[in-house]
Amino acid sequence: MEKFEITILGCGSATPSPKHYTSSQVVDVRGKLFMVDCGEGTQIQLRRSHVAFARINHIFISHLHGDHCFGLLGMISSFGLLGRTAPLYIHAPQELGHMLSQELSFYCRDLEYTVEFQGFDPTVTAVVYEDRSLTITVFPLRHRVPCAGFLFREKPTADHLDRAAADFYKVPQWEYNRIKEGGDFITQDGTVVAHERLTKPAGPVRSYAYCCDTVYNPAMLPIIKGADLIYHDCTYASDDSDRAIKHFHSTAADAARTALEAQAGRLMLGHFSARYTDESILLTEACRIFPNTILAKENLTVTI
Amino acid sequence: MEKFEITILGCGSATPSPKHYTSSQVVDVRGKLFMVDCGEGTQIQLRRSHVAFARINHIFISHLHGDHCFGLLGMISSFGLLGRTAPLYIHAPQELGHMLSQELSFYCRDLEYTVEFQGFDPTVTAVVYEDRSLTITVFPLRHRVPCAGFLFREKPTADHLDRAAADFYKVPQWEYNRIKEGGDFITQDGTVVAHERLTKPAGPVRSYAYCCDTVYNPAMLPIIKGADLIYHDCTYASDDSDRAIKHFHSTAADAARTALEAQAGRLMLGHFSARYTDESILLTEACRIFPNTILAKENLTVTI
């Protein structure tokens, strides 16, 4: 199966802790690397990880709180020092555009590559990136400020040709693509060989939903439904649910309920408050509702 | 002796390395804490250190390269989250003022304390901070952009009263201060007891010079002369002296020569290039010229 991997660079919340870095992760889809959020220290974590950072061409910023974007300038500068020449695309809430451009003019005058800002509206669901094999959709979360979630979804692929069957029926090579896309084959004597006899079904379409920072947000369920993996805000345990609501964050139970209702494959909890020296309390709480749950941690790579 | 301590938070150069954080340190003079430079990740290091960060009221920024100031916004934000109410003074090259004020309005709208910007001209030697026991002087270094060094110097203190001698001559308490400041004592029968018999000399005036980033810069020698400790740019070893000159940085030999010519007490090398996995080559090189040399490292505290 083609690569579809998430590597966590930071999964702490805003208040710095000795245990966690602030939010950042890298999504690797078939060798294309997408960064999601870029809190302070992301470039440090990136150098410690095995992520081939030169292959990161797109960075997605969910919202404009510092713990999700204060690493951006340092990383842009360091990419310059390390000899980057390829353009870097920053996808972020529209209002960052002007500020970032001023900061780049002030701090990063000598870059030998271009930073292309691509603003989006975090209050509207929309596809903001698309290539041959992938779409990335922005959708609204519910946080203190406009905040986006991101859905990474593979595009359906054509069925795989069954070479043995194709050889048996003497299918000429120039027919292969048409058959993979759904066509039948007609032999020289007029016999119809059904598409299904010549192919094996393509693998299921995989998807990954990043939902951080948010309170419990049922409005997003139709968008993330069936995701193989959901990364969800899990700042607090349920005994701090008042605090969660006040700060527009989620409890472990909120995250698990979301995964259950979205019929997700797996749930990864993240954005942990610095108050938990041991996050197993969060894991236990979530697993009671949605057993297939794991805790994010720095340098963890999860394969979808 | 009153406290005079330097704690290193980061001593790497601009390119991120898995080994070092970018420039930042805290100078503790008699319980008052001054931060010098604030590269990305400073707040992370601060939380890992034993520095009482709430007592940091002044931050000095040497120049506007990201590895010396990209940690500022994150730290200012986190101080807010952690409930700071005391004003925070940022002393930095004048041109940062406008940019910082824009960034604060954009990213840090809800601070419950004030950030007071106090700009200086890094091309001019001037006292930029003074209290009862300390002066901090800015002086020009030679870097690619205007860049300041900082000299922390204790003010001379009054001599210490020798209590046994004072009791012997029956000196009344209300005379103590006058005698400590240099006065003699006259007994009731008219005998003059010399100041020197009643006091012990105050400790020597201590000073610390922060000289990072710079090429070898003899112009600063009169200012830092006799410093108890010099922290000096030591980005490269001598076999990279071409590179050092090109980037306006120093070699270990440049740093040692500066310490020798300044008749310093000790030299601490810092701002290491990421190319050195083992910095002992830099230490060896410097010690040949100035033996009383140490390597900076994260979380090292040096007492003056």
Overview of this structure, please?
2 copies of one chain form a homodimer. The first copy, chain A, has helices at 42-48, 66-69, 72-81, 96-107, 163-168, 176-180, 195-198, 221-224, 241-246, 252-261, 280-289, and strands at 4-10, 24-29, 32-38, 56-60, 88-93, 115-120, 126-130, 134-140, 148-154, 160-161, 185-186, 192-193, 199-200, 207-211, 229-233, 266-270, 293-295, 301-303. The first copy, chain A, is of the alpha/beta class and 304 residues long. In chain A, 26% of the residues lie in helices and 28% in strands. The first copy, chain A, is built from 11 helices and 18 strands. The N and C termini of chain A lie close together (10 Å). Chain A binds chain B through residues 14-18, 21, 40-41, 43-44, 46-48, 64, 66-67, 70-71, 73-74, 77-78, 81-82, 99, 102-103, 106-108, and chain B through 14-18, 21, 40-41, 43-44, 46-48, 64, 66-67, 70-71, 73-74, 77-78, 81-82, 99, 102-103, 106-108.
Task: Give a brief description.
Chain A has 304 residues and is an alpha/beta fold. Helix content of chain A is 26%, strand content 28%. Chain A has helices at 42-48, 66-69, 72-81, 96-107, 163-168, 176-180, 195-198, 221-224, 241-246, 252-261, 280-289, and strands at residues 4-10, 24-29, 32-38, 56-60, 88-93, 115-120, 126-130, 134-140, 148-154, 160-161, 185-186, 192-193, 199-200, 207-211, 229-233, 266-270, 293-295, 301-303.
